[in-house]
Design a protein that fits this description.
Elements lengths: L1 H9 L2 H22 L7 H16 L7 H4 L6 H21 L11 H22 L6 H10 L10 H6 L9 H21 L6 H4 L4
Helix pairs in contact: 2-3, 2-5, 3-5, 3-6, 3-7, 5-6, 5-9, 6-9
């Protein structure tokens, strides 16, 4: 298990886990103090999940790009497991709120949004690198939580604001699933793009 501990440390997973925990807790405290509802609304939940996913997005690449692409390691499997564990960690942290008076629920919405945003972040990592992978989930989330967005029967609106659509909305579920699967496959098979040596070499 030594390699696993080294992998977590090299990917800055403890820092990401601490950041995600702090963000989720902060949103939970604010909802507990300032609202009377037992369910944290979809907009707050979506913003919180997005920030937690972005925190873990920084762990999707290491300091040495060449090592991340070496043929001696089964990187596709490791990347897929890493992504699944990140999603499981975020979902577990959110699910702890069900023991309190302010909850991230329903679980179907939490799972859908976590999977979709994590897939979008992974896709961004595969295309432009982990350092810029936060851009797409941030922009899409900010669009989805705009006041003009809301539950709708229009499919285009459901896709644009899939994050805040009620659990069970077909278009939103399909959109999240496509993002999750596409991101998983792209990241697992490709990883991140190779950066110039000048960007990864230690300062002298």
């Amino acid at each position: 298990m030594r390699w696993f501990r080294l992998h977590l440390r090299s990917r800055r997973v403890p820092l990401a886990l601490g950041s995600a925990t702090a963000l989720i807790t902060l949103a939970w405290v604010l909802s507990l103090v300032y609202t009377d509802s037992t369910t944290i609304n979809a907009r707050t939940a979506s913003l919180t999940i997005m920030l937690a996913v972005v925190a873990f997005g920084a762990t999707l690449s290491g300091a040495d790009d060449a090592l991340d692409h070496t043929a001696s390691v089964n990187w596709p499997l490791r990347r897929a497991v890493h992504l699944f564990l990140a999603g499981a960690a975020i979902t577990a942290l959110l699910s702890l709120s069900t023991l309190t008076d302010a909850r991230y629920e329903p679980l179907a919405l939490v799972l859908r949004n976590t999977a979709g945003l994590l897939g979008l972040t992974a896709l961004g990592t595969a295309l432009v690198g982990a350092a810029l992978s936060w851009i797409a989930p941030l922009i899409w989330t900010l669009i989805a939580v705009l006041p003009v967005m809301g539950p709708s029967r229009d499919v285009r609106t459901q896709v644009a604001s899939w994050l805040i659509q009620p659990a069970g909305t077909t278009a939103a579920t399909v959109c999240a699933t496509v993002l999750a699967v596409t991101g998983l496959l792209a990241y697992a098979l490709r990883g991140g793009p190779l950066r110039p040596v000048s960007e990864t070499a230690p300062d002298r």
